[in-house]
Amino acid sequence: MLRLGFIPLLAALTAASFGAAFPQHALRKGCSLFKYKFLVPHETQAMQKMKQHFEDIMLLSDRKCNARLFHRKWNPAELSVPDRVMLVEAELDLVTAMLGLPADPSFTEMRQRPLAFLSQAREDLRGCMATGAPSHQPSGKLRHWLQKLQMAKKTETTGCLEASAIIHIFQVLDDLRCAAFQEQCI
């Protein structure tokens, strides 16, 4: 009889400890973002190939870019989980918009796989965000970065924003991993 009372108590304590370890206010319960923890090698290779092709094109062009969106004085690990989710959503919006721009045929073909992957990641992240929760107000660090992003969209050339997004694509993927798993990033 004592055993029957102990098992439900143990189950309740275990559930409570998991609930505290994974806050429910950031991402909806039951999300399937596991595929972003470790990228499939062919996805990583496609992104690396696209990034390298773009950097080769950039060497031949004379693009001057002042946008330093991804040169932050803080690390996403310093942000709360809801802030990290907001950060990666904004980053994915920028990257997918830039990859969706018209380009020369060789580059258009090369970026199709990364664009599809990142668009799916953005939709998965949005699908996992808590619905009906009070809207989160970003911290000062994130609010400043979001304002910087909006200003860059108004003042920088499309080519500059495209270059910034593609060159820092792996930073965006790292931020996605951190936001999706609500873990501390290195």
Your description of this structure?
One of its GO terms (biological process) is positive regulation of immune response. One of its GO terms (cellular component) is extracellular space. InterPro entries: IFN-lambda_sf, INF_lambda. Residues 1-21 form the signal peptide. The protein has 186 residues and is mainly alpha-helical. Helices cover 65% and strands 0% of the residues. The chain has 8 helices and no strands. Helix 3 runs antiparallel to helix 5 (112-128) and helix 3 runs antiparallel to helix 8. It is globular and about 40 Å long. 25% of the residues are buried. The model is unreliable at 1-26 (pLDDT under 50).
| CATH superfamily caption of the domain at 73-184 | Interferon lambda
**Approximate strand percentage:** under 5%
Radius of gyration using CA atoms only: 20 Å
Oligomeric form of this entry?
single chain
Intertermini distance: 48 Å
CATH topology of the domain at 73-184: Growth Hormone, Chain: A
Looking at the overall shape, the CATH architecture of the domain at 73-184 is Up-down Bundle
CATH class value of the domain at 73-184 = Mainly Alpha
Class per helix and strand makeup: mainly alpha
Please give the largest β-sheet: none
How many E strands?
0
Number of helices: 8
Mean pLDDT: 78
Shape summary:
globular
SSE pattern, N- to C-terminal: HHHHHHHH
Helix content: 55-70%
